[in-house]
Structure to design on (670 residues):
């Protein structure tokens, strides 16, 4: 009681900006709020909910038919105002089966339905319990995820979890054991508005990710940590704060021996400092690695990670505004061993610039004359280092060619190596097949004709030059991407326009007996980029669709806001199948990157039909949910994204096709 009063006093003193000068008052009752009881009718009978009894203990199971039947408006418990408490705990008693890998299930979600935004969520995967919440600041809205390593949860036995949240401190207590604390550098927001929001129990509104286990207790305790109220408990796995009336009767008697045998962790030893030895004598002891924030258990003779010391992406911060010679259509980041990290910018006007990473910033290093340069490609052949530029425009004498430059280790500059005749070149791709080196150019158009050949060139080791090897018919080719799957080599082209329509097929080719042959075609809409990436064993191909336009149907169908598509390779069927549609605004580029064990895609959104000021979006891989938007970045005519690492951390750089300004962003990891 007195602790609660003190808390109220503290909240009173701090106040919160958006609640104005009004005295602080809690938005809800400060007693335990039985969220589960809100969705259970008193007689226990409703479609979508079933009562089951396991180990002599009653719980509820939800069915996939209608997540809405297990939801209720937040206003039902937020009776006096609309703010989620800044400090609270959530108490859950549940019994969950083993989940297949990659599967995730929601225990609870709070959704702002109009915006379809997850305000708060609790979900678990085979090894982790994730607490998600929305934080908003001037830079945009963020979904933050705090993850607890909890592989012991999925053993088909009852467990009681207490998640206590207070600003940046997140603490999880399992079965009244030792709490695991995570200090995050993103705090739970002091003013999370729940106006118009809805609680969903056992789902996040969709049938996908529906909770398949049994739930007995789900309580929100505003204002305080429930642990002292529940623990220690004689029956820690079923410690109870509040459960719905219908679940109250325990028919079977819990096995007393089981309770007594439960390993209380009271005499658990945690060692700090550098890695201590782990032998039989240290068995079952813990070591906390303070530097990496990892908690390890000595099991047998090895330290086993309990609370994983992993890096995760928290947010991005602006690192450098890079003022460029002119608008930048493409950026290529590469390193030269022993020299450093470079970024080549393809600039629209007469000169393109190469920057070198110096004292944590890109600094101008070399300028090269180019003609409406569209992109650069870095590649190596043996010890030789090359950089090829795709020139879109002709030179002063009306000649059209693109140029390969070679790094001179003596001059420490790139020098002209070979000119190749091209037609409004958009992109170069470099690759190796069976030990031979190739380049392929995307010829966009010749005069007004977009239906022309693009060309594959082979490196001739005797002449030490690239020579034409295969021509491939393309329609307004914009981008080539090479990748391999096992022993097979693939090349995919983004075809933009065939003279009358942007709704054309982009083609994927496979290398068979010395040449590329058609493997699969995809209907694309002004395709500007293909990005290939792997997540574990899975292989994905994402296309950036920039424009839907057709001369014949101009009026009905001239749109920049359309879906870009992610395909996944089905190895059995030997074909890429649609995996996910993502709405984009004239998407020009996809970039895939990883931070720790998390995977992300960022899209260059460039135009919505009216303005070039559109947000580019970072998506996070969330397993069965696919890619989920986690961050918006205001961009202007965004054209190209690149991810790179230095010893100081991970970065993204993006260019603008509409202003002479590129930006370097640093990925904040925790
Ligand atoms: C371009 O594509 C459209 C739609 O696919 C098709 O109707 C039209 O005939 C094509 N035009 C040419 C010149 O291939
Ligand atoms: C292209 O290169 C491959 C690999 O060296 C070779 O087998 C093939 O004959 C070449 N084709 C042409 C037309 O030069
Ligand atoms: C208009 O474009 C969309 C793709 O953005 C496509 O799905 C639809 O079929 C097109 N409609 C017509 C009439 O071509
Ligand atoms: C892959 O294709 C095979 C054969 O068409 C099909 O049976 C299987 O369900 C597909 N796998 C996935 C994951 O879609
Ligand atoms: C950067 O480093 C991370 C490891 O933290 C790695 O997963 C990622 O692939 C690297 N990215 C690039 C672009 O090299």
């Amino acid at each position: 009681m007195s602790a609660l009063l003190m808390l109220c006093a503290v909240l009173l003193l701090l106040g919160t900006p958006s609640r104005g000068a009004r005295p602080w008052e809690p938005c809800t009752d400060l007693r335990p709020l039985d969220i589960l009881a809100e969705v259970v009718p008193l007689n226990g009978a409703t479609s979508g909910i079933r009562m089951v009894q396991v180990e002599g203990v009653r719980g509820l199971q939800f069915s996939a038919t209608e997540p809405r039947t297990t939801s209720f408006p937040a206003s039902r418990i937020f009776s006096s105002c609309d703010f989620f408490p800044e400090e609270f705990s959530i108490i859950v008693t549940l019994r969950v089966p083993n989940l297949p890998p990659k599967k995730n299930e929601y225990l609870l979600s709070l959704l702002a339905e109009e915006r379809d935004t997850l305000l708060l969520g609790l979900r678990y995967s085979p090894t982790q319990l994730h607490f998600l919440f929305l934080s908003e600041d001037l830079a945009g809205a963020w979904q933050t995820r705090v993850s607890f390593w909890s592989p012991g949860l999925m053993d088909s036995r009852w467990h009681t979890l207490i998640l206590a949240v207070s600003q940046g401190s997140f603490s999880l207590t399992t079965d009244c054991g030792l709490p695991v604390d995570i200090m995050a550098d993103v705090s739970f927001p002091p003013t999370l508005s729940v106006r118009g929001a809805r609680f969903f129990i056992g789902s996040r509104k969709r049938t996908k990710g529906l909770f398949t286990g049994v739930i007995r207790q789900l309580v929100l305790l505003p204002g305080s940590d429930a642990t002292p109220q529940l623990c220690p408990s004689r029956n820690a796995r079923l410690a109870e704060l509040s459960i719905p009336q219908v679940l109250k009767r325990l028919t079977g008697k819990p096995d007393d021996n089981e309770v007594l045998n439960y390993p209380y962790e009271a005499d658990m030893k945690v060692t700090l400092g550098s890695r201590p030895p782990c032998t039989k004598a240290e068995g079952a002891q813990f070591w906390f690695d303070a530097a990496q924030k990892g908690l390890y258990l000595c099991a047998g003779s090895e330290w086993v990670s309990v609370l994983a010391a992993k890096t995760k992406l928290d947010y991005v911060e602006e690192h450098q505004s890079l003022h460029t010679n002119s608008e930048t259509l493409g950026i290529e980041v590469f390193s030269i061993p022993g020299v450093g990290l470079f970024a080549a910018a393809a600039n629209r006007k007469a000169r393109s610039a190469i920057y070198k990473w110096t004292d944590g910033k890109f600094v101008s290093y070399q300028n090269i004359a180019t003609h409406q340069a569209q992109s650069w490609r870095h590649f190596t052949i043996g010890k030789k280092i090359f950089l090829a530029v795709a020139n879109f425009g002709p030179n002063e004498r009306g000649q059209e060619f693109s140029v390969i430059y070679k790094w001179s280790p003596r001059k420490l500059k790139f020098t002209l190596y070979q000119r190749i005749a091209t037609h409004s070149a958009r992109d170069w791709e470099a690759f190796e097949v069976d030990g031979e080196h190739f380049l392929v150019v995307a010829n966009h158009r010749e005069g007004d004709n977009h239906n022309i050949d693009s060309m594959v060139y082979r490196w001739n080791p005797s002449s030490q030059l690239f020579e034409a090897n295969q021509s491939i018919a393309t329609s307004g080719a914009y981008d080539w991407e090479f990748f391999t799957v096992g022993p097979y080599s693939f090349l995919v082209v983004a075809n933009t326009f065939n003279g009358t329509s942007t709704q054309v097929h982009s083609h994927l080719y496979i290398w068979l007996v010395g040449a590329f042959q058609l493997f699969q075609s995809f209907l694309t809409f002004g395709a500007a980029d293909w990005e290939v990436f792997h997540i574990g064993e899975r292989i994905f191909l994402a296309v950036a669709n920039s424009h839907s336009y057709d001369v014949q149907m101009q009026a009905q169908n001239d749109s920049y806001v359309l879906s870009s598509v992610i395909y996944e390779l089905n190895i059995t069927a030997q074909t890429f199948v649609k995996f996910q549609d993502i709405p984009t605004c004239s998407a020009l580029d996809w970039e895939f990157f990883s931070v720790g064990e998390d995977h992300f895609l960022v899209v260059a959104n460039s135009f919505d039909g009216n303005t070039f000021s559109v947000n580019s979006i970072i998506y996070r891989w969330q397993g069965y949910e696919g890619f989920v938007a986690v961050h918006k970045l205001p961009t202007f005519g965004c054209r190209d994204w690149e991810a790179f690492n230095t010893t100081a951390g991970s970065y993204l750089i993006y260019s603008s096709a509409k202003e002479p300004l590129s930006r370097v962003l640093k990925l904040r990891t925790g």
Notes: Confidence is low (pLDDT under 50) at residues 1-23, 250-269. The chain has three domains: 33-248, 268-307, 313-669. DSSP finds four helices and 46 strands in the chain. The first helix runs from residue 2 to 14.
